[in-house]
Design brief:
The protein contains five helices and six strands. It has helices spanning about 5-15, 45-65, 65-70, 140-145, 160-170, and strands at about 25-30, 75-85, 95-105, 110-115, 120-135, 135-140. Strands 1, 2, 3, 4, 5 and 6 form a six-stranded antiparallel β-sheet that branches.
């Protein structure tokens, strides 16, 4: 089941947190609960992706993105992700999550997140996120304008650009 209560708690905490710039890092703290575990008694890989929502959604609230989304009837969707799982996260482990927007192109925002457990990076994700309307994807420039921002994207890291290029070469629909 989706952790609606936990997300609501994070949004409640974010409403009292100071506003942050679009490119700043949002830091949040979580715990790996028994319902997050898999058969090997560690954080389930799918649940990891869900828990990253607990950092990303409040980050959007603190940066003012949620105001632009609500004012324009837009939504947000994950349009792709690349994940590294490097350390086990066990029941009751405390997690420090860091989330930040690292840039954008003509269609997507790119967001980097990491989970830190016992001082080590356990998981790292970079995803591309689309702002959507009934007409389709809303260009990041239009979203920034609705947020009252006039920013150029910082250069995306070379490895992120390589991932974007690889995604562009990937066949769709899959050849299964």
């Amino acid at each position: 089941m989706y952790p609606f209560f936990r997300l609501g708690l994070e949004l409640w905490k974010a409403r009292r947190a100071p506003a942050m710039g679009l490119l700043e890092t949002h830091v949040s703290h979580h715990r790996c609960w028994p319902q997050d575990l898999d058969l090997w008694m560690e954080l389930n890989n799918g649940r990891t992706l869900t828990l990253f929502d607990l950092g990303r959604v409040p980050m959007g609230r603190r940066s003012g993105l949620h105001v632009a989304l609500a004012a324009n009837g837009w939504g947000a969707a994950v349009a792709g992700a690349v994940v590294r799982y490097r350390r086990r996260v066990r029941a009751f482990d405390a997690i420090e999550m860091k989330s930040r927007c690292i840039g954008w192109d003509g269609r997507f925002f790119y967001i980097e997140q990491a989970m830190w457990v016992h001082g080590e990076c356990a998981n790292h994700i970079v995803l591309r996120s689309a702002v959507t309307s009934k007409a389709g994807i809303v260009a990041p420039g239009q979203v920034l304008g609705a947020m009252g921002l006039a920013l150029d994207s910082p250069p995306l890291p070379e490895w992120v650009q390589a991932w974007i290029a690889a995604e562009g070469a990937r066949p769709w629909p899959p050849e299964l």
